[in-house]
């Protein structure tokens, strides 16, 4: 079978490797679609702090089960599935206290262990998440990033009737915005410098989209949310120094900032100001199985528009071109998928 291997930053080779077999509690998935995300781009640029080369990427995925091991109990051949890509140890303090997503020994498919960028992929059934039989395989590959948004929103607490600001309108920022809308937020604003991403946000039902190259963020906040109340919760989905600096500077005293984005470097934050204003900084990392299930439910209920996010689809031999498209033309790129198998 074909397998896309990143041998060095910016270099991908398509290799022939044996098709995996189902063993014990493992299932073999025929891969349909793979999503490319911002963390993958960090690997492409050689800037991911926890990934070495060679590496097979691919952690946002959908596919069909084509083989099962003799000990598999809850999955059958033909099931439409996605994969929860976190490999946790199960014995450390976070794992034994319901926080396996921040396992002390965590490995994630496509970063610290082999990902799904191949025709077929074998993994324990414990990582398999069933999709509805009628779910589009393209959307199935986007359940993972939606689960990121679901967890981020749940970490923020009850968002019903809250005014929400999302800084960064890329795929994750968009999905966070859609999730808070689905969970009852009264008004949602996204900010970015990318016109396409702001247009996509409006197309997905977000209330306000602000291009901070054209208008100061604080001006838009005071107009839309009120000069006193401002935003109840701010989500940083940009992951660049100006984003966290802006979040802190526009935050209402006593409000929350949820850091969703993955930062390449170490940003500077005015802790004295955070202290004085009692601003709460909340971290969120990835997801758990319940977040996947919630994401699937939100899509099934018609509360999330995934179609609007997809701008590009490549075939497996074009894997490198998918990375290049994101890296070189962000102004015309939103969600990029790689098609492997299955119609």
Explain what this protein looks like in three dimensions.
- The chain has ten helices and 17 strands.
- It is α/β, with parallel strands linked by helices and 343 residues long.
- Helix 8 links the parallel strand 14 and strand 15.
Average pLDDT, to the nearest integer?
Answer: 96
Measured distance between first and last alpha carbons? 18 Å
What would you call the structural class?
alpha/beta
Rg over C-alpha atoms, rounded to the nearest angstrom: 20 Å
CATH-assigned fold name of the largest domain = Quinone Oxidoreductase, Chain A, domain 1
Number of domains: 2
Helix count? 10
Total E-strand runs: 17
H and E order? EEEHEEEEEEHHEHEHEHEHEHEHEHE
By CATH reckoning, the class of the largest domain would read Alpha Beta
- Overall helicity: 25-40%
Query: What fraction of the residues are assigned to beta strands by DSSP?
Result: 25-35%
The assigned CATH architecture of the largest domain is: Alpha-Beta Complex
Biggest sheet character: 7 strands, mixed
Low-confidence blocks of residues: none
Could you name the CATH homologous superfamily of the largest domain? Answer: Medium-chain alcohol dehydrogenases, catalytic domain
